[in-house]
Design goal:
InterPro entries: Aldolase_TIM, GH, Glyco_hydro_27. The chain has five helices and eight strands; from the N terminus they run βααβββαββααββ. By secondary structure, the chain is of the alpha/beta class. It folds into two domains: 100 residues, no CATH class; 39 residues, no CATH class. The radius of gyration is 17 Å and the shape is globular.
Length: 157
């Protein structure tokens, strides 16, 4: 069992809010079997309150992968570089809990729009995304599937 940020914060959770909840989880619920602390969807949105307008700004790395927004998750930035949730994960684990994040399947639509390079390959996002198979749910944040069958010339690793 565990605690998930969605029920209290929706898309807007910040690092300090998450850490405060982890403290309570570790002290009061862990003895009863609650051992997961999860940051739900939206941690990669710079302006989550703009979702309905469609003007959200995504935090993506150079390869089109979601990264935590540094203004909301300051520990993600180490020496000027976004290191993801390493520090938060270490913090949660030090409390004897397990850490999780919510992420939609596939490749971010924004990565396809930007035609980001795909890490460790010679391909770009537009070449690997199946834009006929959008992830349902929150369409403005959603992703596109990555085909199970490799396209001609693609190699999987």
């Amino acid at each position: 069992m565990g605690w998930n940020s969605w029920d209290a914060y929706g898309l807007t959770i910040t690092e300090s809010q998450f850490r405060d909840n982890v403290e309570i989880l570790a002290k009061t619920l862990k003895p009863f079997g609650w051992d997961y602390a999860v940051i739900d969807e939206g941690w990669f949105l710079q302006n989550p309150h703009e979702l309905k307008s469609g003007n959200v700004i995504y935090a993506l790395d150079a390869n089109g992968r979601y990264v935590p927004v540094p203004e909301r998750f300051p520990s993600a930035t180490v020496n000027g570089r976004n290191e993801g949730f390493r520090a938060i994960g270490d913090y949660v684990h030090a409390k004897g809990l397990k850490f999780g994040i919510h992420i939609v399947r596939g490749i971010p639509r924004e990565a396809v729009r930007r035609d980001s390079p795909v890490a460790h390959s010679r391909f770009r996002a537009k070449e690997v995304a199946d834009i006929t198979d959008p992830c349902p749910g929150i369409p403005r944040i959603g992703a596109f599937a990555i085909p199970l069958q490799a396209r001609p010339g693609m190699t999987r690793s």
